[in-house]
Amino acid sequence: MKDRKWRGEPLKQKQIDEGEVTTTKWHPDAKYSWAAGKAMSRFLEELKNGKLIAKKCDNCERILFPPRMFCEECFVETGDWVYIEDTGTIETFSISYLSLTAERIKDPILVGVISIDGASEKMGIMHYFDEVDPKKLRIGMKVKAVWKPPEERTGSVLDIKYFKPFGEG
Ligand SMILES: [Zn+2]
Fold first, then answer.
1. Ligand 1 center to 58 CA (angstroms)
2. 127-to-78, 86, 102, 111 alpha-carbon distances in Å
């Protein structure tokens, strides 16, 4: 049943930015710390150097990425750290014409899962795509990371700005 009496209308970012609606700002003084764990910490640290690092399982010989301290298939501790490429293949993608605040946008946000070269099959991360015509995005397309300049990197997956088509695709 549709509520006709209390029909609402979602707020637009513009209405907030331009003071069309009353807003208040509140800064919570929350303090917290979160440990990324051994494998994830090293992974994030290496991003600052512009490198992707994985971990090898000596039992199944898979190269696990993002790296983890235990192989989830063999239930054993993983072995050596292995640097892998910053190129990969699009496994799946999405083209969004909605902004984060659910407004229509002209230039779509392109996101997807990329399996990274040098890691075992289907070991991927999710990221943005750019420098590509959205109509040309394809599963199986080869892509390469576009990194932020070293001085702007913070040890985050966003140290990679996005992935762009690479090679013949
Ligand atoms: Zn294993």
1. 7
2. 25, 12, 20, 6
